[in-house]
Each structure stands twice: as C-alpha cells, then as structure tokens.
Amino acid sequence: MRLKTVGWLLTGAALVLIIGYTGIRMISQTDSYERTAAKTNNEANIEKSAEPTPFGASGTNGPQLVAETQALALYIDPATTEISVKDKRNGHTWYSNPLDRESDKKAEGINRDNLSSQFSIAYNNDKGQNFYVNNFAEAIKRNQFEILKTSKGIKIVYQLGNFQKGMEAIPQIISKQRMDEMILSKIADEGEKFEIEKRFKFDEVKQIYTRKEMPEYVVKDVVAILDSVGYTAEEAAKDNMHNQAGGQKPTAAARFTVPIEYYLDDENFMVEVPVREIQDTKEFPIDSIQVLEMFGAAGVNHQGYMFVPDGSGALIHLNNGKISVPQYDMPIYGKDQSLREKDVVKEFKQAARLPVFGMKQSDQAFFCIIEEGDAIASVNADVSGRVNTYNRVSAKFLLKPMESFTYRAGSVKKDSPMFPELYQGGIKLRYAFLPKESASYVGMAKYYQDYLVKSKKLTKLEAEAETPFVLDLVGSIAVRDTFLGIPYQSVKSLTSFEQAKSVLAMLKQRGVKQIKLRYSGWFNRGVDHDFPDDVDIDSALGGKSGLQELIRYAKEEEIELYPDVSFLRVYTTGHGFKPKRDGASFLLREGIAQYKTDLVMGSRGELDYYLLSPKKLPDLVASFLKDYEPLQVGGLSLRDLGDMMISDVTSGRTTDREQSAAIIADSVKLLQEKVGNTMVSGGNANVLPYVKTIVDAPLKSSMLNFADEEIPFYQLVLHGYMDYAGSPINMSPDQSYKSNVLKTLETGSNVYYQWFYEKPSAVRNTEFNDLYSASYSNWLDEAVQYYRETNDVMRGLRTQTIVNHEKLADHVYRTTYESGTSITVNYNQTDVIVNGTSIAAEGYLVGGGGR
After folding, report:
1. Coil, strand or helix: which one is 824?
2. Which of 152, 169, 347, 397 has its CA 20 to 30 A from that of 75?
3. Residue 387 to residues 289, 304, 327: CA-CA distances in angstroms?
4. Contact 255/275 with Cβ under 8 angstroms?
5. At 630, phi and psi to the nearest 5?
6. Using one digit for the tens of pLDDT, what is the confidence trace for 365-402?
C-alpha cells in the first residue's frame, strides 16, 4: 500500500507565502513552519522516520521548548499535546495534566481519558440529547491533530470524532471499463488488487461491478487503496450517477474541529480558542467547551484551596470530601435571563461579578483572568474523590445553547431542539503564577487589582473627610385605584422631593455629612417606570420644579444625587416599547418576559418585567439623555446595567452575551461622560471603569454546601478605588445590628439604607408590600448610630487599599490596610483571645485598641 505523506517541514532561504489555519503569513529565513498532521490509525506506525517531528530531531519525545520570556518557559509534548509552563523565577513547573495520573485508582472510562485531555466539549444530537467527549479520546488517540508553530507560541488544531472516509468513497456500481482504467490498472501490488476485486460482484452480462456489504474495518482499507490511486469520493459519485445507483450519503457522525493556542505574554501564560475556526455538524451541534480542566490539578497530598468568584468570593479546600453535593458550576455575571430555565435550575444567592478563579497549592498558586468570552463563561470546580483523585478548577464556555420547542398538529405533539448561530467572539485566558509570598487569595486579589488599574484604568478615590452614607429614597410607586368603580393605575408619592430634603436635613443635623442619595421612582410613573425614552417627572412628587429644587439643595449641601433608571428591565408595554419589536428574543420566543414567583405556591406569579434587546440600548440611552442631560443633576443611578447581562438570539441578528457586555459598557461610559458620576447595582466587571459607587455589591458568597469559606475578594480588589455598599442594612435578612457592623468593618463597606418618608401603611396592599418596614422614622436613630460607629473607624481608610485579610480563628477575621491599620472582627457569641488580646463577643479591635 502506498501512503501519502501528511506531515511536512518547511524552512526557507527566502520569504515564502504560507496559507494555513492562521491565514496568510510571511515566514522569514530564520522562521520555520512545522506541522504534525493527522494520521489514520493504520498510518500511525508506518514510516515514522519519514515524518518530521515538530520540535526537534526525528524520534524526539517529551516536552519541547516552544516559547520563552524572562519569567516563563513554555513546553509541549508533540506526542500528547500536553503543555507545561516553567516559572523560571522559582523553578516550579505547572502542567496541563497530572504527571502521576496513571496511579489514579478512582477514574474510569471517560473520566480516565479526561485526565489526559486539554479540553472537553459537550454537544447535542437532533433529538436534543446531550453528550460529552474530550480531545484525548477523540483526537489524540486517533492521531487527529496538527501542531503549528506561530510567531507567539504554538497552535494545535484537533479533529474530534471519526474523520475517516466511509462508504461514500466506494462506488455502489461501476462499469468494468471504469474499474479497469481508473482503479485496477493503477494498482501495482497484486494483494491490493485482489482486495479490491473481492469486495465487488462482477456481472458478466452487464459488464458492471456491484459493491458487496463490508464491515467498517474493511471500508478503511478499501478507501485507503482507492485514495492511493487517485480514485476519490467525487469519482464514486459520478459512477453511481452514471449507473443510476443513487447517491451514497456520508454516515452522520459527531465530528468537531477545534483549535487552541498557547503563548507567553511576559509573566503570563495565555490560552486562546479561535472560536470562528471551530467546526461542528448540523446533526451534532456543539454546546460548550471546557478548557484546561486539569491544569494545575492538585492531588490528594496537596494542601491549599481553590478560589471561585461566588459573590464576594469563596474558598473550596482541597480534598474536602464533599462529593455528596453537586460540584461548583456558576455562570459569570449570573444566568442569562433570555434563556429558558432547565428542569433543574441552580439557584445562587449571589452572582459571580468578576471573571476570575485560582488555586493555591502549598506555597505556589495560579490565578486566571478570563479576558475574552467571560460573558459566556462559567467557573467549574471539583474536589478529589468524585470521579478522580484530583482537585481542579477551570472555565467552561457556552457556545451554542439549545432550547426545545414543542410543535402541535392536532393531537400530535413533537419536541424539537433549536440552536442559534455559533458564538463568534473570542476566548482568552490569562494565567498568572504567584510565588510563596503572594500565593494566597489576597495575592490573587492584589494581582487582579493591579491588572484592572493597568488595563482598565481604575483610579484611586479622592480623599474626603468622612465616609459616605448611601441612602436610597423611594419616591413614587404605581398603585391600583378606582374612579366610580372603574379601576385604573395612579401614581402615589412615598417620598416627595420636599420630603427628601427633610430627610437629608435630618441626617445633616445629626452629623451625617457625606451623603450619596439614590432616588428610586421619580419619573415616568414610579419605581417600575414606563419605557425611559423620555423623562416625565412625576407630578405626585412635586414635578419638574420640585426636582430642580432638590438638585439645587443637593449641590449646596454637597450631597451626591443619583436619580435611578432601569434600561434593560422594562416594566410596562406601550409608551414607546413593543415587546416583539424591542424585547429580547431567543429564536421563536419573542418579547421575553420575567415573572414573579409566588412564594406561597412556589409557582410562577404575575408579570414582573420584559427584557430589552441589547441592540436597542444605545438608542434608548441617547433618547433618555436628550431629556435628562439638561437637568444637570450631576449623577445617575443605573439599576440594571451593572447587574444583568442578556443575549438576543434571532435568525440573522444574534447579539450574544459578550456583545451585550460591550454594548452595556459603552452605554455606561457614555452616561458617565454626559451626566457625571454613575452608581450601579451589582457591580459586574465590564462596567467598573465607568462607575464611582456600587450598591448591592456582594458582601457574602452564596454559602453553598460545596464551599468551605467565604472571603471578601471583591472588596480586596476594589477598596480604595470606588465606594461600595451591600444590600440596604434595614432590608437585610440579618437584622442583627452587631453582625452587620462587623461585616461593614471587615469588608470596608459603606453604610446603606433604603427608606421612604410616609407611614408604613402607605405600601399596604400594593405591589411594594416588601417595603413595609422601610419607613424612615423606624430607622433614623439606628442609622445615625450605625454610621457614627463605623465612620469613626473607617474615615481615614476610605482611599487605602486592603493589603491583607486573614482568618485568625473560627469566625474571627482581620483586615489590614496599606497604612498598617488593622480591624479584627469577632462574629462569635462569646469572647475570644487572639494573640493574647481579648475581643468581646460580636466585637472588634482597631489597631491595638478594643471596642
């Protein structure tokens, strides 16, 4: 059998034009383009000496150097495509796959293959069933990959699945003349000629050969012989058509082409997946890809933890034995509300606001920033003992989500899956390696903080004499009323503009000097306002003149005023908004809405809001600014632009979450430029460069059973660069004054309350019953006391970064600032002694003194 040479090496004495997977490139005299091509199983061990090895002399095995910087060296094993990165600063090497995996006694089947994989993919079939494969079993074992040297490092193109030619390359019927001329006369080897002849039945009368049935292993051999003489699938189709044999369709199979790139960027190891080059099939569309799941995997003898961005942050201790609860799997920036919920929905109390994760192993740590693809990413983590003996944390990316739609024709019902276009953005991961002195979640936070300052241009806060008191006043709400028995909706004032001034004056008189006022429900008919393509100030509050007086008062008293607006959540139809035209869609579902949950029945309640298509956001913001900018308020609160991220999927005009994140960030940037200061809820990473204040920032994690500790990672990153507060203290499920004070001090947060002026009965029997306890008169004295206590501690620390956070004992934590000031909090109900000093139950220490 004659085999084609499918691997080649090219070096040029002059410039050579190369067209390959990376497009058109010029290769100079000192450059080389090296390629290890896909080989069939039969070819794998034939004429190895004729095949060039990717990075070294013929027959070389083991890691080969492909890139190097002053800090790092990148290696690849050409036989397995395993990656290793040596940190030249301390000699430690990080591996894409565990070196001792052969000793794993737990992993079986695909879980054992996964130990040798660099990525895995999930895909669906035409029935909507989900499957899972990895590149080791489907590409490396089959020798279906190419290694390409790039100017930055290395690129590997994998083919997962059976890419062998099948029966379509063998004619069903072929004339004797064509058999002799095109095939038999060109085969020199008599054994191969006999192999072809015996696979066909010859009809003497008709002078034709008819193909016999043959097993799969024979098909591969026959196709290889036909291919060697130049008889292709196209020739087979011609013969079939000429002899009226009908077409031979290729057997449908799950086949995927997936490229992945590795390179170094100074002190960082970079991983990219060129998603536009991923190929799947119509019958088996790809769902998601999980990248480098086993990178830096820690075995049962390692000590340390995995860091995950759950809310404020959480730690999962290595080998914690929690294999009876689900593994960690949380989407970055929360779930995409435009996607239909699955049968089993994971509910998280907090969202992941930052696209990062990491792992500490003894005195070494790695930290990963998801630079591209973060909006379609989720962070996955698991401990040893469930499916293998390793602890690992990585990112997964949703490329083509599926939804099942039900079609009915009379009494016949059929469920059919539908898929959007493949995500067309990028996937990029930046791995940093932290040595002994910074190998901790504090070191990870410091690294990310420096990264944001450098790449996102975060700047330090300007010094103020006091810390901010953040107040959310609820202005107006829509209520149901009747006139002569006819129901209608009216607008009811809970805090008029004049009453807002009264509340602010009371706070000022009690020594609360630095106030940030968020005003919710001030225009377009209340808190759940109409479509904000214009600004119609609610007359029930005092109208335009009342607002202008409040603006004047706030500027005179140096109060930052942030009227609140919702752009992505649209609470009513009409007034410029049509759900099918302006709302988010997912294929056949147009004008997607969200519904309230009936807490008693646990079922879906009434309509809550519609989702605005991200494509409509720029025009909506521009329309809003035409009316809002002339008011010269100096600030704006953005209810949802820092809190949620949605996609909009329709045929020919898809906006994925990554595009949505960019649109939202651009909109917040524009609003900042036009109105001044911006305040957001939630605080997703994509808007941080354009924000001054964050409310509803995560102060806790979701406290999942799988995790072991919650940490203030979010605060470690942002303190000193922006003001932030958690949820309103008076609306918190935990109404313990002392524990709330401790959390404020531990996390360096601002004091935040939500009030309205009228009596509690004002919200009774309305859709805002949950505000019943928020009347300001119930909270004013406590809020002033709370602010005075925390302000006394924090007033000199607002512009400082947090340089350390540590757990000293159970429920005892210490936060240290760059000036050296430390705050130690004791959440226990009993006194504790730390380093010889007693801290009272639910008390705290500042520096060396107790309180």
Report:
1. strand
2. 397
3. 19, 20, 11
4. no
5. -60, -20
6. 999 999 999 999 999 999 999 999 999 999 999 999 98
What Å distances lie between residue 38 and 42, 51, 164, CA to CA? 12, 11, 11
Q: Give which of 59, 56, 63, 44 is closest to 9, Cα–Cα.
A: 56
The tens digit of pLDDT for each residue in 567-620 reads 999 999 988 999 999 999 998 899 999 998 765 555 677 889 999 999 999 999
C-alpha dihedral over 599, 605, 607, 609, to 10 degrees? 30
Q: DSSP secondary structure string, 786-817?
A: HHHHHHHHHTTTTTSPEEEEEEEETTEEEEEE
Q: What are the start-end ranges of the H helices in 38-161? A: 110-114, 135
- In angstroms, the CA 268 to CA 248 distance is 50
- The token pair at 740 is 């709330």
Residues 6+ apart with CB under 8 A from 548: 631
Cα 713 to chain centroid distance, Å, stands at 17
Beta bridge partners of 493: 476
Residue type, 351: A
Instruction: Report how far residue 208's alpha carbon sits from residue 175's, in angstroms, rounded to the nearest whole number.
Output: 4
**Residue 198 identity:** K
Q: Which residues of 625-639 are buried (b: 16+ CB within 10 A; e: fewer)?
A: beebeebebebbbbb
What is the phi/psi pair of residue 158, to 5°? -100, 145
d(CA 589, CA 341): 13
User: CA-to-CA distance for 758 and 754, rounded, in angstroms?
Assistant: 13
CA distance 203 to 36: 45
CB-count exposure of residue 402 (10 Å: 0-12, 13-18, 19+): middle
CA distances from 660 to 128, 140, 503, 584, 711 (A): 26, 36, 38, 11, 29
Given a contact cutoff of 8 angstroms between Cβ atoms, the answer to whether 748 and 719 are in contact is yes
Q: Do 137 and 113 touch, CB atoms closer than 8 A? A: yes
Residue 765 CB coordination number (10 Å) = 9
Give the single-character DSSP code of 136. Answer: I
Query: Two tokens at 673?
Result: 């430029």
Burial of 727 (0-12, 13-18, 19+ CB in 10 A): middle
- pTM equals 0.87
The number of beta carbons lying within 10 Å of the beta carbon of residue 565 is 22
Q: Cα 757 from chain centroid?
A: 41
Only one residue has tokens 């103020």, namely 464
SS3 call for 569:
strand
**Cα 509 to Cα 503, 559, 729, 843, distances in angstroms:** 10, 14, 21, 28
CA distances from 132 to 80, 109, 739 (A): 20, 12, 46
Contacts with 217 (C-beta within 8 Å, 6 or more apart), sequence order = none
Residue pair 503/778 in contact by the 8 Å Cβ criterion: no
Map residue 224 onto helix, strand or coil: helix
How many Å separate Cα 599 from the centre of its chain?
30
558: CB partners within 8 A, 6+ apart: none
Asked if pLDDT for residue 248 goes beyond 60, the answer is no
Residue 146 makes CB contacts below 8 A (sequence gap 6+) with: 21, 35, 36, 37, 38, 156, 157
Burial class (CB in 10 A: 0-12, 13-18, 19+), 529: buried
pLDDT digits (tens, 9 = 90+) for 329-377: 999 999 999 988 764 445 668 999 999 999 999 999 999 999 999 999 9
Structure tokens at 454: 């450098």
- Map tokens 């630079």 to a residue: 371
Residue 77 token pair: 């094993």
Please, which residues have CB within 8 angstroms of residue 807's CB and are 6 or more apart in sequence?
709, 813
Where on the phi/psi map is residue 773: left (φ > 0), alpha (ψ -120 to 50), or beta?
A: alpha
Nearest residue to 721 via CA among 693, 697, 698, 680:
693
